[in-house]
Structures are given as structure tokens and as C-alpha cells.
Design goal:
alpha/beta, Rossmann fold, globular, 309 residues, single chain, seven-stranded parallel sheet
Length: 309
């Protein structure tokens, strides 16, 4: 992604180790890439996923899913416009929907609830959720989605891990968390780090962004653990909502890196809901910057390859 130096400084978790935002580092390709891509390259490159440019092509299948993931590039305004279009169309088919957001951290759930109830202004929501400090991407990208949720009285779930936790794990590993800090994330027994393909993928991202500042094996492992904590926390929030609201559809807004191949959130939700009957569908809102896709393995169910119509 492309960030200004000022924004990048605000977003760094570990100044000397990470020169990009943990959790959105992987395959959250820049808006520039999205503008330069060749339209027909999507289907040629991602043969196991369905590349589309019309909402009508995917809406029927999305409407049947219990959980829909809309994988965004955080600094791409078109992705956010398409998120709202999809949410609005799914709402027309089933008003019982909930929007789950990576952009807000779990301790601020009550702040969001107060905004939706009309007890806080939009400005107060931004301030009290510490949005600029904890997320920092243009609020204008997400404001229409929050306004729509408020207008239609939809529930909104704050999914994200507190940045203090992710930052500490990235520096010192999971074992460094105190008992009080552990209460802010899923139990350690539910934080699975056994996906070797995911580990290798994140390790490659870590090394790519080091650019000469080679981290040691502990740095890489802590980086991986921090990402998994992030994924597991969001997966836990989604799974809990599905269990307690079985008649609702959950629409998840998160970075592409948390969704591709199911490694980040989807597979971890499925693990928690293995006793439940449910379906998940994933949409990447623009083609990802993936140079070596895994043969015969879908990076997502659907990829939007042009302006959604």
C-alpha cells in the first residue's frame, strides 16, 4: 500500500522491524495497481476464482451465505464504494444483517453502539473510538457505511485486536502477554499457528519489507504470532455473533490479507463453527498483487476486476 510518511509513522507497530501496517501488509495491493491492471488478466491468473465485474453475477450466491467477506485494499476508495453497494443490495434481500469491521478495535464496541443509537455524533464516534490513532485511513471511506448502518439500525461489530496487544506480541511474542492482556484476545489455546503455508507466506512478506534490515528468526516468529492473534480475535468475534444470531447474515469488512486462501479469518471461523450449519463466501474487491498464486486453490470465491455495475 501507499502511505504518506506521516501516516506511516503513526501506523508502525515496531519502528525498526516493520515499515508497514501489520495485518494489511499482505496482498492489500495499492490503488495504483488496481488502476493499471489489465482487465482480462484476472481470470487468466486466478483460474480457481471467479472474476466478475457485475454485482448481478455474485449477488444471488452472496445472499445465500451466512458470512460474506469483502476483502478490501484500505486506501482504495473504489473498494469502499463497492462495499456499500454490496451491503445495500444484500440488505434489500435480507434486512437481518450485521456489519463486522476490522477498522474498529473490540474495546470500543460500546462507542459504536452509542453512535448507532444516536447518542453520539459522527465526530464523537471518531474521537471516542480513537479512530485516527488506531486505524488512520481516511474516515470518508467508511463514513457512508456507518451512516447506512445507523439509518437502517444494523448492528456493527468491532472486530480488531487492541493495537497495544498486537504491538507487544510483534515485539516480544505471545508468551509476553500478562493475564490481564490475555483477556483481550481469545484463549491462547485457540490461537493456532500450525498453518505452514500461512507461515511461509507471512515470512516472505516480512523479509520483502525488511529491505536489507534482516530480522532474526525470533522477529519473524513474533511477526507471525501477531498476525495470527489479529486473525483469531476477529474470527472469534464473528463466530460468537453467528452462534447467538443464527438468522442474521454477517458481512465482514477486512483487508485482503486476512481473507485470501481462507488462512486468516475464514478458516478460523469455520473451526469455531464446526458444529454449526453455515456457509461462507469471500470477495476480493480488486485483484490482489499476488505473483505466484497456488495452482487449483482459489484465492477467494470472487474477484472484482473492474468497476462494479
Amino acid at each position: 500500500m501507499n502511505l504518506s510518511s506521516e501516516t506511516r509513522q503513526k501506523r508502525l507497530f515496531v519502528p525498526r522491524l516493520f515499515a508497514f501496517s501489520l495485518g494489511i501488509f499482505l496482498l492489500c495491493s495499492s490503488a495504483t495497481y488496481a488502476q493499471q491492471r489489465v482487465e482480462n488478466s484476472c481470470s487468466e491468473k486466478f483460474v480457481a476464482s471467479k472474476c466478475v465485474d457485475r454485482l448481478s453475477e455474485i449477488l444471488p450466491e452472496l445472499a445465500q451465505a451466512n458470512i460474506v467477506y469483502l476483502g478490501e485494499t484500505h486506501d482504495n476508495p473504489e473498494d469502499h464504494k463497492n462495499q456499500l453497494k454490496i451491503i445495500q443490495q444484500l440488505y434489500k434481500r435480507n434486512p437481518k444483517i450485521s456489519i463486522a469491521l476490522e477498522m474498529f478495535q473490540r474495546p470500543y464496541q460500546e462507542v459504536i453502539n452509542q453512535y448507532l443509537a444516536g447518542k453520539l455524533t459522527e465526530k464523537e464516534l471518531i474521537e471516542k473510538s480513537e479512530y485516527a490513532k488506531r486505524w488512520g485511513f481516511p474516515w470518508e471511506n467508511y463514513a457512508p457505511i456507518l451512516k447506512f448502518a445507523k439509518e437502517k439500525q444494523l448492528s456493527v461489530i468491532a472486530l480488531n485486536t487492541p493495537s497495544e496487544i498486537t504491538r507487544k506480541v510483534a515485539r516480544e511474542g505471545l508468551q509476553s502477554l500478562t493475564l490481564s492482556e490475555q483477556k483481550l484476545i481469545p484463549p491462547l489455546s485457540e490461537i493456532h499457528t500450525d498453518n505452514e503455508e500461512y507461515r511461509q507466506q507471512l515470512q516472505a512478506a516480512f523479509q520483502q519489507h525488511q529491505a536489507g534490515n534482516h530480522g532474526n528468526s525470533a522477529d519473524v516468529e513474533n511477526f507471525f504470532q501477531a498476525q495470527v492473534v489479529w486473525d483469531e480475535t476477529m474470527a472469534e468475534g464473528i463466530a460468537k455473533f453467528v452462534k447467538t444470531h443464527p438468522n442474521y447474515q454477517v458481512i465482514v469488512l477486512a483487508g485482503q490479507g486476512h481473507i485470501i486462501y481462507g488462512y486468516g479469518i475464514p478458516n478460523r471461523v469455520a473451526r469455531r463453527l464446526k458444529a454449526e450449519k453455515f456457509t461462507q463466501r469471500s470477495v476480493l474487491l480488486s485483484p490482489p498483487d499476488e505473483t505466484q498464486p497456488k495452482e487449483k486453490k482459489a484465492i477467494a470465491d470472487f474477484i472484482l476486476q473492474g468497476g462494479l455495475r
